[in-house]
TrEMBL record:
<feature type="region of interest" description="Disordered">
    <location>
        <begin position="1"/>
        <end position="30"/>
    </location>
</feature>
<keyword id="KW-0413">Isomerase</keyword>
<feature type="domain" description="Methylmalonyl-CoA mutase alpha/beta chain catalytic">
    <location>
        <begin position="187"/>
        <end position="317"/>
    </location>
</feature>
<dbReference type="GO" id="GO:0004494">
    <property type="term" value="F:methylmalonyl-CoA mutase activity"/>
</dbReference>
<dbReference type="Pfam" id="PF01642">
    <property type="entry name" value="MM_CoA_mutase"/>
</dbReference>
<feature type="compositionally biased region" description="Low complexity">
    <location>
        <begin position="111"/>
        <end position="127"/>
    </location>
</feature>
<protein>
    <recommendedName>
        <fullName>Methylmalonyl-CoA mutase alpha/beta chain catalytic domain-containing protein</fullName>
    </recommendedName>
</protein>
<dbReference type="InterPro" id="IPR006099">
    <property type="entry name" value="MeMalonylCoA_mutase_a/b_cat"/>
</dbReference>
<dbReference type="InterPro" id="IPR016176">
    <property type="entry name" value="Cbl-dep_enz_cat"/>
</dbReference>
<dbReference type="InterPro" id="IPR006098">
    <property type="entry name" value="MMCoA_mutase_a_cat"/>
</dbReference>
<feature type="region of interest" description="Disordered">
    <location>
        <begin position="82"/>
        <end position="156"/>
    </location>
</feature>
<feature type="domain" description="Methylmalonyl-CoA mutase alpha/beta chain catalytic">
    <location>
        <begin position="340"/>
        <end position="705"/>
    </location>
</feature>
<dbReference type="GO" id="GO:0031419">
    <property type="term" value="F:cobalamin binding"/>
</dbReference>
Amino acid sequence: MPPLAAQSPDTVESQPAEHEAYGSPAGQSNLAQADTGQIAVLLEAMAAELELQLHPSCKKLLDEWPAVREAYGVGAKLLTAGSTPDAARKPPDAEPAASKPVSAKTDAAKKSPVVEAAASKSSSAETDAAKKSPDAGSATANPSSPGATAAKPSQARLHWTTLSGLTLPRIALPRYSCPGDLLRWLLTENVPGQPPYAAGVFPLKRSDEEPKRQFAGEGTPERTNRRFHYLSRHDNAKRLSVAFDSVTLYGHDPGERPDIYGKIGNSGVNVPTLDDMERLFRGFDLCHPATSVSMTINGPAPILLAMYMNAAIRQQLAKFAAQHGRKPDAAEEEAIRTRTLQTVRGTVQADILKEDQGQNTCIFSTGFALKMMGDIQQYFIAHGVRHYYSVSISGYHIAEAGANPISQLAFTLANGFTYVEYYRSRGMAVDDFAPNLSFFFSNGLDPEYAVLGRVARRIWSTVIRDKYGGNERSQKLKYHIQTSGRSLHAQEMDFNDIRTTLQALLAIYDNCNSLHTNAYDEAITTPTEHSVRRAMAIQLIINKEFGLARNDNPLQGSFLIEELTDLVEEAVLAELGRIHHRGGVLGAMDTGYQRGRIQEESMLYESLKHSGELPIVGVNTFLNTNPAAALASDPELARSTTEEKETQLANLRTFREKHEAAAEEALERLKQAALGGGNVFEELMETVQVATLGQITTALFEVGGQYRRNM
């Protein structure tokens, strides 16, 4: 009924009888005479009937919720009272560690995995350290494992106190009183570590290490090794990320050819041999549970990955020899090799689909490149390689090529599901390979970037669960964020740090698993020592000084974030539908669909930037009145020297001369394995010990074909 002020006199006059029925003494008398007990019984019956229609999983969520709230709250009271429960660090995907009973009142609450996790488990916010599995728990808990250390207690503080004396929660929970509102929130958001993982795939962020992973690579392996030690010298966790030069990216050996010589060691490190890979990581224990290595390499990724695995094995063999004063015998060597493969952790990018769509470092034919990706994953399954990501499905380079955040996310997820379909077509079970898949996104300043991770996690977990029947570990999408390179400008370079800070804050708020912050001078050079220190400080200041970052789910509860999440998810699903109707990812690639979309979106961005409609401070607005001052004068440039180039040429000659006889036979075996349908990566593990990157690439061109773009 409309309010009385909005009703006509006729309407008002026609209603006294209705009001009299309830407000008059006669109406009250009638109501008093009604069988109120019967009404209550009818209402209870209706409620029971509706409850029976509720899906069992929904009823379970609602039934567990009081225990979840109590676990977070009771845990906080005990923690502030000084009795922090200790829980040995366990693999995030293992069963939650049993915690001491908080009280008799909460014993029942612990039956829920989320309750146990909230009360006793501090889990990882880092992509590679988060890969442990239930059957691999001893890798960190058993000191006798290669490179293992005794598990350290991890204190999961659920609240913290500000300087003003306020107590704030690490996980802020909703205060809904209506079961319908609560159920909608549980189904679309839920607490961190629970499906659909909108707030993150782990219950709590790791508190004993930062999520930073800084990208580095320049000159010779020795020079990059020094930079790695500089970047990680204050960190217990050694998170290394390798940038290769364009010579390596395209599968060439360093040489005197003019189009190769000038690129040796510029904008990345030059690594043509296994010996170079060993030099690159000298001084780092590649099997230590706190060490992980990410390698941004795609076309020749299987070759570089085989070099890395062999470098780790050689390192452990050398350690055995130093400890025992002798070389291991055949059985001991095989045991060391097996343990190394099952212990080493990190990521190789190896995403050939996005190379065709955005970055353009394809070298082998797409079909052969996909076969080698499948060979890597099958080798990982056969040898129990569970801590290393076999592919980093990358949207970053799609964004850098010009795609907007919607297209970046849609194309990346589509590529990911294509790999799932391909691996399943080769007989691999989804739960055997999905945990070895990781993702890599760019973060810009558009509003969509604020929800990129939460949308990706929701879509991935739902599809893996409902379409492919994957378990909880397979449903967890773990991803790395790098701040936008396209947002770095040569004009007013100092302003780039401000942009990077905002992008990093979005990534941390959205619970990314690892993060690289770009240096302000990357618009013109490989980062200098000064600029990379500033870039690392951005993350440290956010994580250590910025108060709200101490909360693990700051985005939840925002009306705007919830609406933006739904809008981005809808747009991404629509784009996935358009790709599906073009024959899937490979069919769309045949017509150049993804590249065309990226080019259109890049053109829009550039036109708006040049017209000034898209304001960029210091570039097209708020311009410096002194144009010369807007550009850096005599900036420090990181470039490889002539001496470094010559060093690489000399090292290459030494390696080739040493293995000249064995290389020819190994390359022939490799070609036969490829022609016979064998596992190419398994053969590469032997080939890289005696052959160079260029030699192997040339041999594989003969049997697998070179990349040719469809026109």
